[in-house]
Design a protein that fits this description.
The chain is mainly β. It contains five helices and 38 strands. The strands form ten sheets. A four-stranded antiparallel sheet has the order 1-30-29-28.
Length: 591
């Protein structure tokens, strides 16, 4: 989209002023530690010179406790040769977190080393057995991998009735109909065939370039209902989602109107974004056009890529951030309630710094632990030779720090901002359990970056939610940390950003000197619980168990959160009681 020249100039000036007046990093920042952590993944896009579009769109990454040792492991999607050949070069990788900031690559027999031409991934417990499974989006048949425990998986695609062929991008899980089982939504991008040899480029020199996506029809998204017996059925039409065919790239489920049911938001490329309201029973009604979140403030569709959600204005409901094409700027939609949204990108300072960047994976998170949400987006063009002279294929990432007034300013804190990459998937997680958000980023045709958060000064508390089966991950829960001067709210989701899946735990940061009053959880399907400040321990993770209402402090704070099964905790408690009783009886006999 080309905007008026005066707006282009004002946006560029605003962006430069935002950086010139950027906040003081004060020793805090992000550093790429992938190599020293033992992560040697390099994305292979398979470019052959024929310039097939799938080559430039992947890929994603997921944080998942694959082996149930309490530490977050890293699952990375590979693309491989194009056309796809199913070779070892296309195999997805799993890096097991061994603690102390070190990872070890799992052997190729771990069971989920999918060899399709990979795009995205989402991690969630779809069968309710307490182990986190993987759904992989491909250019080609998608794959569902069931977690067998101990870091091993099996291909459950055929048994689950899945495996749709075509071009899938991102996916998300949520309990749409309230039966406890997680349903699945998959965005599908373009109707594109390997045999397509459309020439786009300079006809005089014969030099090819990637074709514009507008030349291809959009592929219809899919919604799969979880039947509860390990199988899914295609319920796209029955659920009212038959109109979701807008070249989907990003997707997320969350409760946008506060009625307890997960609503659906889809980022589309070059067509309007989709917003669907859930009626509470798993049927959806389109509110896209009237919501204010389908187009930008100018009433125009943008090239939506990645999505992030968070309560930016601290009014208790989720706001939406969309990463877009260059010249469009990224868009921040403030939730006004009742499924209405306002585009506040310009006035908040959120949009202008992204004017000359093309955004993909993104997160809204409190990166510097000051109690305010920040925004990080990884950037990179889809064209190796962008049409504008001031744009590059490889680009810098963008970080915006939020302030108390809901405004954003760009900051470049740490060595992570020194280089240029072709950023795609991004997943946020506190992988080293030190209470701040780290980032894993897949770069198209380049090495994976693991950005470790270093030097955050604020206080923090984290929460690990154990939901009742079959929704063992408590997907859809709302967690609120209450302060005397306002609340901080977070939502448990499965699938976000672009082609990626972030840490399922909830992490809050705040300035030192503030004191939380209480924490509360509202579960998907109803029911809530609240604990006072005396039951929390700042600087630690806490385990929240839906079945018992238990809030337990976990530790230690580095290396592992020690997520022991509830049965083990009860057994340990019983053993301690018996030991004390035996000691008391022995003392009585002695006396």
């Amino acid at each position: 989209m080309i905007r008026p020249q005066v707006l282009l100039m004002s946006a560029a000036v605003a962006g430069s002023l935002a950086l010139a007046d950027s906040p003081n990093c004060a020793g805090w920042g992000l550093a790429d530690v992938a190599r020293e952590a033992g992560i040697d993944f390099v994305h292979e896009r398979g470019g052959t010179g024929r310039k097939h579009l799938p080559e430039t769109m992947g890929s994603g990454v997921a944080w998942i406790d694959a082996d149930q040792d309490g530490r977050l492991d890293l699952y990375v999607v590979q693309s491989g040769p194009f056309p796809p050949d199913g070779s070892e070069a296309a195999a997805n990788r799993l890096f097991l977190n061994r603690g102390r900031g070190e990872f070890e690559r799992a052997d190729s027999a771990f069971g989920a080393a999918d060899r399709g031409y990979g795009q995205g991934v989402v991690a969630a417990d779809y069968d309710g057995d307490g182990r986190i499974d993987l759904y992989v989006c491909n250019f080609g048949p998608d794959r569902l991998y069931r977690n067998l425990g101990d870091g091993r998986f099996e291909d459950a695609t055929a048994a689950a009735g899945l495996g749709l062929d075509g071009w899938s991008s991102s996916a998300a899980f949520a309990d749409a109909d309230g039966d406890g089982y997680l349903d699945l939504y998959v965005t599908r991008y373009l109707e594109y065939e390997v045999s397509n040899d459309l020439f786009c480029g300079d006809p005089q020199t014969g030099v090819r370039r990637y074709c514009d996506p507008s030349l291809f029809a959009g592929a219809g998204d899919r919604f799969y209902r979880n039947l509860g017996d390990g199988r899914f059925e295609d319920a796209t039409l029955a659920a009212g989602l038959g109109g979701a065919n807008g070249k989907g790239l990003g997707v997320l489920f969350t409760d946008l109107d506060g009625d307890g049911a997960p609503d659906l938001y889809v980022a589309n490329d070059l067509t309007q974004n989709h917003l669907f309201r859930n009626d509470g029973n798993g049927r959806f009604e389109s509110r896209s056009i009237f919501s204010g979140a389908a187009f930008n403030v100018d009433g125009k569709a943008e090239a939506g890529m990645g999505l992030a959600l968070g309560d930016v204005d601290r009014d208790g409901d989720p706001d939406l951030a969309v990463s877009n094409f260059d010249v469009e700027t990224n868009t921040l939609y403030a939730n006004a309630g009742a499924m209405f949204f306002d585009d506040i990108s310009a006035g908040s300072g959120f949009g202008p710094p992204s004017f000359n960047l093309l955004g993909f994976g993104a997160t809204l998170a409190d990166l510097n632990r000051d109690g305010r949400l920040d925004y990080y987006v990884t950037n990179g063009h889809i064209f190796e030779q962008p049409t504008r002279a001031d744009l590059g294929w490889r680009q810098r990432d963008l970080m915006l720090l939020g302030d108390d007034g809901g405004r954003f300013r760009e900051a470049r804190c740490g060595a992570a901002f020194d280089g240029l990459q072709v950023g795609r998937g991004l997943a946020a997680a506190d992988y080293d359990d030190d209470g701040d958000i780290d980032l894993a980023i897949v770069n198209n045709g380049g090495p994976l970056q693991l950005l470790r958060n270093e030097g955050s000064d604020g206080a923090w508390a984290g929460f690990v939610l154990d939901g009742e089966a079959p929704n063992t991950g408590a997907v859809g829960a709302r967690v609120t940390l209450h302060f005397g001067d306002g609340d901080a709210v977070s939502w448990v989701t499965a699938g976000d950003s672009y082609q990626s899946s972030s840490d399922p735990r909830v992490l809050f940061g705040w300035r030192r000197g503030r004191t939380p009053r209480s924490v509360s959880v509202v579960w998907r399907g109803g029911g809530s619980v609240e604990w006072g400040a005396t039951e929390m321990s700042p600087g630690r993770y806490h385990r929240v168990v839906q079945a018992t209402g238990l809030l337990a402090v976990l530790g230690p704070t580095t290396g592992s959160t020690m997520r022991l099964p509830i049965g083990w905790l009860l057994a340990i408690a019983a053993l301690l009681v018996l030991t004390l009783l035996a000691a008391w009886m022995t003392l009585r006999r002695i006396r």
